[in-house]
Every structure is written in C-alpha cells, then in structure tokens.
Design brief:
Elements (H helix, E strand, L loop, with lengths): L9 E12 L2 E8 L9 E2 L2 E3 L8 H13 L5 E10 L8 E9 L11 E4 L10 H15 L16 H12 L5 H11 L2 E11 L2 E9 L15
Parallel strand pairs: 1-6
Antiparallel strand pairs: 1-2, 1-4, 2-3, 2-7, 5-6, 8-9
Length: 223
C-alpha cells in the first residue's frame, strides 16, 4: 500500500484547563489562530513533538506552558479521542488532559474563561472533552484532594470547604469536613499567617504539604 493510500495519523494533545470563578467551574479557552476553525474558541492544544516530548504528559505540559504560560500543579490524563471525522484534516488522535489552577493565575492573559454550563460551539470534539473533565473532577472530588488545586494558597479551612462545595454542588458538614482534613494530614498551617476581619475572629491560613502537591490518593469519603 502506498503512503498516499495510508496517510499518517494526526497526533495531538488537548488540555481542559478548569478553574473556579465565583463558585462556578469555568473552562479556559483560546481563539485559534490557524485553520481549521481559525478564530473559533477552543481548548489549548497542539501537536505531539516526537523528538522533544518524552510522552503525552510531557506534550500536554509543554502545550499548556506555551499556550498559557502556566505550569499546572495538577495534570491528569482524561481519555483518547480518535477517528476519521473529528478533524477535517484527516484521521486524527487526540489525548485529552485535565489541568486545575486557581483563577488568580489566569488573570491578564489571552485565555477566555467560560462557565462549563454555557460553552459556545467548540471545534473538533472539545465539548466532549470538557464534559469528560467536569465529570472526572466532580466524581474524584468526593474521595480525593483534587479541589485543593483550585484554591489559591494560602487559604482558610472555610475557604477550602467552599471550594469543595462549589465543585460538588452540595453543602458539607463543617465539623465532618474539618475532621476529615485532620485525618488526611494533607494541610499544614502557615506560622503566623492569619486572616483577620471585622466580622470574624482571626482564622489560621493553610497550604498543601509538599508531599501532596502531586498526589491524589487521599480519601474524602464520609463527608
């Protein structure tokens, strides 16, 4: 079979970059500057560089860095999207990743933040990728430390609880939440760092322990 009859497969990575704005999950989108779909909002993505990237995780981290200037502390593979019709250029394969960052890190850049519940028409199968990422985040938030990556450090325990509640879409018991945080042992108080306000007594500020910055194995069952 000749090369023309068996063309190369297009291999890319796409990153569903999620953040929390006013207690609502948002996806970060970029306007495409090249065909196909030039000018359309889309997920940050790009080709896999076979001579440069050690694997697709490295490709996703590079694309995220090049397209947004970010190095996300959390990056997880979602799924592979493939087929002959998803890309007008030909048979293609895209490995989708999910990244989580606090909203403050996305201010002032080229990224446009859009609520995941009000996405515009997206090219390729980017909508399916966003939907897969949102489902993954909400499911894993029931038993892991994942929402911490949406919370800008330092934070108070009430602020962290609010992030969990926003992602899960339901209230959590304050006493149970604090007890579970203590059991997990993933947070460390910042010495001398307190949040003060006229209406409330000073609250201790926390941050994620270094050992947990890339670990999602902790359990939050029973909240």
């Amino acid at each position: 079979m000749t090369p023309a009859a068996n063309p190369a497969v297009i291999c890319t990575v796409d990153v569903v970059l999620l953040t929390l704005v006013q207690d609502t999950l948002h996806a970060a989108l970029l306007r495409r500057d090249k065909a196909p779909f030039a000018g359309a909002l889309a997920l940050p993505g790009g080709y896999i560089h076979a001579q440069e990237d050690a694997d697709t995780q490295a490709s996703a981290a590079r694309v995220l860095r090049e397209k947004s200037g970010l190095q996300s502390p959390y990056l997880e593979q979602l799924a592979t999207f493939s087929g002959p019709v998803r890309d007008p250029r030909g048979w293609s394969l895209a490995v989708a990743y999910c990244a989580l960052v606090p909203a403050a890190l996305l201010e002032g850049g080229a990224l446009e933040l859009v609520p995941v519940s009000a996405l515009p028409p997206l090219p390729f199968d980017h909508r399916a990728m966003v939907e897969a990422a949102v489902t993954r985040v909400r499911n894993k938030s029931q038993y892991s430390s994942m929402p911490v990556y949406l919370c800008a450090e330092p934070f108070t325990l009430p602020q962290l609880q609010s992030v969990y509640e926003a992602v899960l879409g339901e209230p959590l018991n304050k006493v149970s939440f604090r007890r579970k945080m203590e059991e997990l042992g993933m947070l460390e108080p910042m010495p001398g760092a307190m949040q003060t306000g006229a209406a409330h007594r000073p609250a201790q500020m926390y941050r994620l322990k270094p050992a947990f910055r890339c670990s999602l194995s902790t359990s939050l069952r029973g909240l």
